[in-house]
Amino acid sequence: MTSTAATLEIDLGAIVANWRAMAARAPGAACAGVVKADAYGTGAVRVAPALAKAGCRDFFVAHLGEALEIHPALPADTNIYVLNGIAADECDLFAAKGLIPVINDRGQIGLWRGAAAKAGRPLPAVLHVDTGMSRLGLTVAEALALPADAFAGLDLRLVMSHLARAEEDVPLNAAQLERFRKIRDRWPKIRASFANSSGVFLGADYRFDMVRPGCAAYGINPTPSQANPVAGVATLSVPVLQVREIDRPESVGYGATHHVSGPTRIATIACGYADGWLRTFSNRGRAFIANRFVPIVGRVSMDLITLDVTGADVSVGMRAELLGPHLPVDEVATVAGTIGYEIMTRLGRRFARVYRDPA
Ligand SMILES: *Cc1c(COP(=O)(O)O)cnc(C)c1O
Questions:
Q1: Neighbouring residues of 246: CB distance < 8 A, sequence distance ≥ 6
Q2: Using CA atoms, how far apart are residues 40 and 58, in angstroms rounded to an integer?
Q3: Average per-residue pLDDT in the chain?
Q4: Which end of the chain, N or C, is more open, meaning fewer C-beta atoms within 10 Å of its C-beta?
């Protein structure tokens, strides 16, 4: 056997091509790279510089820690925005590294203005306004009520908001757009950003000055009611550790949730819920091996999954695909009752990661 570890191959070329395709759909707008959650599980330290090389200048992460991780890997003429905002004890680090906080409440405006006064120079900031998520950002009313000099001492670079149901054709999208337009009109000289991946497909009105596609860059379909306009970027291949020949009634795995009655072959592969292959795949998911699909049988355990490979030409050391060309991420997610975002962001740390560079 060549290896007992699963291999996760990340196609950086596909990520860059997907990002370029999204940029092409938003002519006239800048196209940011959303690399939070380790670039949706694909590896932000590899993905961010690849996107920068392709011309991306704006990068969104959720946490300060994520910003610090990609900062050394990016050229100096790029911007890193931190979506989760800023706290008092983080101001010095933000200022020193040139990171840009996404300001989510009035208190953070005060904090960051204080930091700018201390630094003796205008510090860059993004204003986030909540137009329909009830999550982060100033409310529209709070934003419109800000005094004219609210950002004195700061370099306000962007006003942004986030869509709640952009992948659906629902009235909420237009309602959010109308609210965001009020914000745009209040700061007409500041660049505006509204659309995530799905928002880019809602039309030119939604694109403003910068779009923020995340999922589409990573191969998740941003238009779930239509064919996927982007390509898959990850292939997970998992070695068979053992093949068990069973010739009489027997149960498989924890809880004995699967029973075989006659001659059966069970292949045990090196991936489990600790690697992000959710326990909800128990007795539900499938793998592709020896040119065919085979079912996951029994419970997914921490480190192992059992496949029924009866009748398939499977032996130890062969690899089963759990995600990849035969098993696209959206399809896999549906089986587990979740979304592609969750499958991607949970991809495990124990896989041997192989990166294919852009051509
Ligand atoms: C995650 C995120 C995005 C990217 O969304 P996708 O649906 O993955 O394209 C854009 N903007 C904000 C504020 C986000 O949190």
A1: 260, 263, 264, 265, 266
A2: 16
A3: 97
A4: C
